[in-house]
Design a protein that fits this description.
Blueprint: H1 5-13, E1 14-16, E2 24-27, E3 31-35, H2 36-49, E4 58-62, H3 72-88, E5 91-93, H4 100-108, E6 114-117, E7 131-134, H5 137-144, E8 149-152, E9 155-162, H6 171-182, E10 190-195, H7 204-213, E11 221-223, H8 228-236, E12 256-261, E13 268-270, E14 278-280, E15 291-294, H9 302-312, E16 322-325, H10 330-338, H11 342-347, E17 351-352, E18 372-375, E19 391-394, H12 397-406, H13 413-419, E20 439-440, H14 445-448, E21 472-479, H15 486-489, H16 502-506, H17 517-526, E22 530-534, H18 547-554, E23 557-562, H19 567-575, E24 579-583, E25 597-600, H20 603-608, E26 613-618, E27 623-628, H21 633-641, H22 644-650
Parallel strand pairs: 3-4, 3-6, 4-5, 6-7, 9-10, 9-12, 10-11, 15-16, 15-18, 16-17, 18-19, 21-22, 22-23, 23-24
Antiparallel strand pairs: 1-2, 2-8, 5-20, 13-14, 21-25, 24-27, 25-26, 26-27
Helix pairs in contact: 2-3, 2-5, 6-7, 9-10, 9-12, 18-19, 21-22
Bound molecules: alpha-methylisocitric acid (MIC) and iron/sulfur cluster.
Iron/sulfur cluster (SF4) binds near residues 65, 99, 121, 296 and 377.
Length: about 675
């Protein structure tokens, strides 16, 4: 039987299981990436594993999220990351070198390889023909230690691109259209693979925009073939020799196929507060705008920046608009500067920001109250911008410029029809400026021994978990609705500085939704009562941040019960010994309320026997509610032990299969 691109790469990296069994598989990881908001925790956990040097082909530690540096904490973390990278064999991408996904695709990613990253947008690497997956920091630490990464054997949805994009319609509109079709729900366990004639018409950075925002679908990853375009891009990056061809066999079988005719696509926009709330721009044009922000790992490539510059040339933005532009990498920044494009952006009235995540993660540029902010990034979750009353819309850079110039939501095609602006044709250059001086190599093995790790006072060792008790007796300390994101659970923005200090960061769990949640949890914990969270659909959507599980664990949360739990967050819960349970009958969600006293009798035994179902008894209401779980043997053992680190400590050197818990 023929294979798809995803299946080919996975098959070649398979170390455990069967790709077509529907069960869990283990794959070898060639490359890892971490970033500074998730990296300190991953590195601290790696230190505890006692492995002297990373065992991957390449691991890169990026500094791009916590660059606001209000106080010493972020800078202290950066120095820790730098000393860690040097000592343990990682490359370190310094603050200012750019956003991890943009830099990785430019300088490090290779077709046919596997990449695991402690950031949910790691699938950007799929644009260059990699299987690139986002996961929690502890999973990255394990991969750096040479352990396989486990995932459910994926199903593959083939996305057949036909035709060619019209001017003003972009790669961003393709992924917004895919989000409109597939939504952010129900795609767990799938890989999105692009094929068809239309693929050839997209450059690697455009493919990266699509695979990047594929993260919002909730799929495991997204991937493109590696073809002549990929070769052209790698050659322009001075890495032509790293190209290999990779395409689906002609008799490859996709589990489902979606057709998108690029000729028919129109400029699209995602409305607040979810990336799948997508409509055609024409449907909401004319709405007044307050802020426009261009950048982020979705739309900050050279092509994006140069298109923006060309459109802005000789024009100034509407006086009511606060306009910001952040190039995705030092390479993009320099290219725009040296080609004389940057002055067009500066002259237009833009606030030129550093090559970092910044506004996208709510670290700066918070809009005013009730503002309408048009952005080119990938997430418009409630409160993520730093202003809970603001409304964030997601668009292409072309649309963002159109809005910045007119001051209202504008279909970019109007720039041509109403303002006589021609669509600029921008291709990737023949040669990018190559300067890896901010990508620091590790020390050699001899020198590594003498490297001292620097740890500032805000770096606190990660706490350990507790084994699953025989009976789980607790309280519903928090009940939340549908689509609770990791930004709701563990906000970032100005709190990013506490990422290395779990006790401190834990004070802010659910702070924007339920300000006393953390203190109530700690009260319960003191009295020996476990905390239980109840959620609706898509619980844990969004980021890979393991703090959304680690901090609740610290607060004494032992179970999350929801209608559905998102992939990366579910894995993080398990890694920290929190059991993810699903309502057997979704309507039972209504039967349980916040503050109810509940019991899960014999939960430990039920997990050991792997019944797939447990009964919850709500003492306050006097009702029983059946809950289900689908956990692999590995996951059950991890939860019983109280998390992945604890399991490794209790059974040193043992594989999952050899570990046995008493009945
Ligand atoms: C995000 O876009 O939400 C982040 C910030 O990049 C996160 C990682 C984090 O929370 O540190 C992600 O996407 O995984
Ligand atoms: Fe950074 Fe935003 Fe991309 Fe996350 S989505 S990596 S915060 S630019």
């Amino acid at each position: 039987m023929g294979l798809t691109v995803a299946q080919k790469i996975l098959q070649e990296h398979l170390v455990d299981g069967d790709l077509f069994s529907g069960d869990e598989i283990g794959i070898k990881i060639d490359q890892t990436l971490t970033q500074d908001a998730t990296g300190t925790m991953a590195d601290l956990q790696f230190e505890q594993m006692g492995v002297p040097r990373v065992k991957t082909e390449v691991s890169v530690s990026y500094i791009d999220h916590k660059t606001i540096q209000m106080g010493f904490e972020d800078a202290d973390d950066h120095t820790y990351l730098q000393t860690f990278a040097k000592k343990y064999g990682l490359y370190l991408s310094k603050a200012g070198n750019g956003i991890c996904h943009q830099v990785h695709i430019e300088r490090v990613g290779k077709p046919g390889k596997t990449l695991l990253g402690s950031d949910s947008h790691t699938p950007t690497g799929g644009g260059i023909g990699m299987i690139a997956i986002g996961a929690g920091g502890l999973d990255i630490a394990s991969a750096m230690a040479g352990l396989p990464f486990y995932l459910p054997a994926p199903k593959v949805v083939g996305i057949n691109l036909t035709g060619k994009l019209n001017p003003w319609v972009t790669a961003k509109d393709i992924i917004l259209q895919v989000l409109q079709i597939l939504t952010t729900k129900g795609n767990v366990g799938w890989i999105a693979e692009y094929f068809g004639e239309g693929v050839k018409t997209l450059t690697v950075p455009e493919r990266g925009t699509i695979t990047n925002m594929g993260a919002e679908l909730g799929v495991t990853t997204s991937v493109f073939p590696s073809d002549q375009e990929t070769k052209r891009f790698l050659e322009a990056q001075g890495r032509g020799e790293q190209w290999i061809p990779l395409e689906a066999d002609s008799d490859a079988k996709y589990d489902k196929i979606i057709e998108i005719n690029l000729n028919e696509l129109e400029p699209m926009i995602a409305q607040p507060h979810n990336p799948d709330n997508v409509v055609k721009i024409r449907e909401i044009e004319g709405t007044p705008v307050d802020q426009v922000m261009i950048g982020s790992c979705t739309n900050s490539s050279y092509k994006d920046g140069k298109t923006v510059a060309k459109l802005l040339k000789g024009r100034t933005v509407n006086p009511n608009i606060s306009f910001g532009y952040a190039p995705g990498s030092k390479q993009v920044f320099r290219m725009l500067a040296e080609e004389g494009e940057l002055p067009n952006i500066i002259a237009s009235g833009a606030r030129v920001l550093e090559s970092a995540c910044g506004f996208c993660i709510g670290a700066g540029q918070a809009p005013r109250n009730n503002a309408i902010s048009i952005r080119t990034n990938n997430r418009n979750f409630y409160g993520r911008s730093g202003t809970v009353t603001a409304k964030i819309y997601l668009v292409s850079p072309e649309t963002a410029v159109a809005c910045a110039l007119t001051g209202v939501i504008t279909d970019p095609r109007d720039l041509e029809t109403k303002f006589g602006i021609e669509y600029p044709k921008v291709d990737i250059p023949e040669k990018f400026i190559i300067d890896d001086s901010m990508l620091l190599p590790p020390a050699d093995e001899q020198e590594a021994g003498s490297v001292e790790l620097y740890k500032g006072p805000n770096i606190v060792d990660p706490p350990g978990g507790e084994p699953m008790p025989a009976d789980l007796i607790g309280q519903v300390t928090g009940k939340f609705g549908d689509k609770i994101t990791t930004d709701d659970i563990m906000p970032a923005g100005d709190l990013l500085k506490y990422r290395s200090n779990v006790p401190k960061y834990s004070e802010y769990v659910f702070i924007k939704r339920d300000p006393t949640f953390a203190s109530r949890c700690l009260e319960n914990k003191k009295m020996g009562v476990w905390n239980i969270i109840v959620g609706g659909d898509n619980y844990g959507q969004g980021s890979s941040r393991e703090h959304a599980a680690l901090c609740p664990m610290y607060l004494g949360v032992k179970a999350v019960i929801a209608k559905a739990i998102e992939r990366i967050h579910r894995a993080n819960l398990i890694n920290f010994g929190i059991v993810p349970l699903i309502f057997k009958n979704p309507d039972d969600y209504e039967k349980i309320d916040q503050n109810d006293r509940i019991k899960l009798p014999n939960i430990r035994k039920a997990l050991i026997d792997d019944k797939g179902e447990v009964m919850l008894y709500d003492e306050t209401k006097g009702v029983s509610v059946p809950l289900t779980y689908h956990l692999t043997d590995r996951e059950i053992k991890t939860i019983l032990a109280g998390g992945k680190m604890r399991l490794a400590k209790e059974f040193p050197g043992k594989g999952f299969k050899e570990i046995n818990f008493d009945k």
